[in-house]
């Protein structure tokens, strides 16, 4: 039997005692890629943002807060989120392969992920609320 086509041998307890890391531990460090993680978060945040925006805008339309104001809010929100997401993604895509696997970047990743989600969740409510307030003031 050809050894190159054989499945890798499982790690035995004796191997672990000899200082060899389990296969799962080897894979977890090899898979760390901050670029991909941020890209995935941006995709999910955009989905959440779009869903929230639809429900918030529909709610504003049903409340009768001005005829064109909710549509204007929708346009402004779409225009606002795209540059923000591009900025987050560009920052992380500049990393080299070595930098993208550096666990020391975890605090920066958490900071950017928190900012991204704060924008994705907060922006629809904040701007729609602002436009509703403006509609109340000018009607």
Estimate the mean pLDDT confidence.
78
* Structure annotation, total helices: 6
Beta content:
under 5%
* Span between termini: 83 Å
Low-confidence stretches: 1-5
Q: Classify the helix fraction into a percent range.
A: over 70%
- Oligomeric state of shown chains: single chain
Tell me the overall shape: elongated
The value of Rg in angstroms is 24 Å
Q: What's the order of the H and E elements?
A: HHHHHH
User: Quick one: biggest sheet?
Assistant: none
Helical/strand content category:
mainly alpha
Beta strand count: 0
Structure in a nutshell:
With 139 residues, the protein is mainly α.
Keywords:
single chain, 139 residues, mainly alpha, 6 helices, 76% helix, disordered N terminus
Structural write-up:
The model is unreliable at 1-5 (pLDDT under 50). Helix 3 packs antiparallel against helix 4, helix 3 (34-63) runs parallel beside helix 6 (106-138) and helix 4 runs antiparallel to helix 6 (106-138). This protein has helices at residues 13-17, 23-30, 34-63, 69-93, 97-100, 106-138. By secondary structure, it is an all-alpha fold.
Write the layout of secondary structure elements.
Elements: H1 13-17, H2 23-30, H3 34-63, H4 69-93, H5 97-100, H6 106-138
Helix pairs in contact: 3-4, 3-6, 4-6
